[in-house]
């Protein structure tokens, strides 16, 4: 039986995944649903869902919209 | 003759324009040419030129590449 070895160093997760996790963390801390955030930021719920799941390389404009909707600085939203 | 009135409040410049100005400022402080930055960040000189002129709504991935090439934190590059 072949033993699968895991790499010693865990590679850093992709930027999109880290950004999604950061957004989700702040959204949960503030108890804001995907839908409420979408409404406030002028985005769709499905787009927020895709960002959450680390699928989107968001633009600076979207970063600023999300930060404004969450009432935080864009800097705080960077992973 | 019609008198052109300027708005009393100067509207904030577009995000892309403010980002271009910030990139140019840091690039100049560090005395790095558009070409050198392009090489280091894996982008083209013409793309850096368009960012500088406030034409591009850059992605998070590009923000991080530019910051890494300038040896600063992505937070410092946000306008």
TrEMBL record, chains A, B:
Matching SUPFAM superfamilies: lambda repressor-like DNA-binding domains (SSF47413)
Keywords: DNA-binding
Domain of life: Bacteria
Protein name per UniProt: Helix-turn-helix transcriptional regulator
Kinase among keywords: no
Pfam families: HTH_3
UniProt source species: Thalassomonas actiniarum
Transmembrane helix is among the record's keywords: no
Any one Gene Ontology cellular component term annotated for this protein: cytosol
Gene3D superfamilies assigned to the protein according to its UniProt record, in alphabetical order: lambda repressor-like DNA-binding domains (1.10.260.40)
């Amino acid at each position: 039986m072949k033993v699968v070895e895991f790499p010693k160093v865990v590679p850093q997760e992709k930027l999109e995944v880290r950004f999604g996790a950061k957004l989700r963390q702040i959204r949960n801390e503030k108890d804001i649903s995907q839908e409420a955030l979408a409404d406030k930021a002028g985005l769709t719920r499905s787009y927020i869902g895709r960002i959450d799941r680390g699928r989107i390389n968001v633009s600076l404009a979207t970063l600023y919209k999300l930060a404004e909707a969450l009432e935080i600085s864009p800097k705080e939203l960077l992973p």
